[in-house]
Amino acid sequence: MVRSGKNGDLHLKQIAYYKRTGEYHPTTLPSERSGIRRAAKKFIFKEKKLFYVGKDRKQNRLVIVSEEEKKKVLRECHENDTGAHHGISRTLTLVESNYYWTSVTNDVKQWVYACQHCQVAKNTVILAPKQHLLKVENPWSIVTVDLMGPFHASNRSHVYTIIMTDLFTKWVVILPLCDVSASEISKAIINIFFLYGPPQKIIMDQREEFIHEINVELCGLFGTKQIVISPTSQTINPTESTPSTIKAFLSKHCADHPNNWDDHLSAISFAFNVTHLEPPKNTPYFQMFNRNPYMPETS
Predict the structure, then answer these.
(1) Integrase catalytic domain: which residues (predicted)?
(2) According to the model, what pLDDT value does residue 11 have?
């Protein structure tokens, strides 16, 4: 067992020394040697760095020891454009996806609680009502569309966003819109089709006349027929809606970056797609592609 608490960092240093040299660190007591050997089985030493692989040896998390490195990791996972100002659970998931230290849970909690920016709550502005969604069994077969805004006009004249969410994986795609006309929305949907292909159905909680306009536009642009539908009484399943946390985060982000919020939408989408929204389920990325993303090694 890896020791936690105030001596956890020393314990990790002892394990690193043992993995690197095959000998015990001078601070290791004789009574601690068997524990060091057992704990060391969960680690590997490569490229002069210690990695935690776990009992099943399927993880690959860089061991962090110094306080300076911990702060850097916490800042990157919580405050930058891809992990900025998540709550405790999401920040912890992002940290634990790539890094390991014994007090990580407590450190994440303290970091989030101390974040002054997170103390300011912002209301979410949502154009469409909360979606009532179908139960599905395959990725990218049925998706939903949410419209959000208006936001402050960006430098590129974007005022709204469209959020497309796959019901099976919770994979999200967020694109900016200049307006919420049927033509503008249809063009955004077509761009998503070119990336992932068209789904079987798109659920959009708007008036029937507007949905008909979008279907006409999509038919002219892509040849699809009646792909967009409105929710029905048979499709109600509140547990499968687009996570409200995504909408809340997006609203907050757009308010904080009024001139260039549309530059960060891909990064925001990626951050949520590699995050466990409903532990212990796999991330949307894993469910979509049946693997985790190939992340570049940190220096």
Answers:
(1) 135-292
(2) 87
